[in-house]
Amino acid sequence: MALKGINAYKQGNTKQDIASADPHKLTLLLMQGALDRIAYAKGAMERKEYEAKADYISKAVAIIMHLRDTLDLSVGGETSENMFALYDYMVDRLNSAHFKNDLQMLDEVSSLLSPIRDAWVQIPEAAKQEAYEAQRQKRQAV
Question: CA 20 to CA 92: how far, in whole Å?
Fold first, then answer.
């Protein structure tokens, strides 16, 4: 019973974070969400809770596909193309991990996504604001 209250509190905080987040923060929340779901899937796999494992992997795949699909390939050039390919690879590995019940594949995806998340955290505030302003001006021009 108490766990429901804790989960409701966490969910409320997440909704509040999302509502007040800038695009940089939203991307960070998505990356962390994918990493969390992969960790939960790993635990479920170890406990042989296959339905939960499938749910967590499915959610991680959806998040990573969203990250992939929101890349602006026309602006990012080779870097964006490489990120697109890397996200595709992560999706493939997660699906393989699901079908093969392979913990190492889950660890591999976490080890690929974690440094991206860590680098994302290190982006200077000035660079975030510059990118946000450029995106805002691009939308206004359309």
Answer: 32
CATH at 74: 1.20.120.340
53 Cβ contact partners less than 8 Å away, ≥ 6 residues apart: 41, 44, 45, 98, 101
Task: DSSP letter for 70, please.
Answer: T
Give residue 132's pLDDT band: very low, low, confident or very high (50, 70, 90): confident
The count of other CB atoms within 10 Å of the CB of residue 17 is 13
Question: Looking up tokens 């990356």, which residue turns up?
Answer: 31
Residues 10-19 have pLDDT tens digits of 555 556 655 5
Domain count, the chain: 1
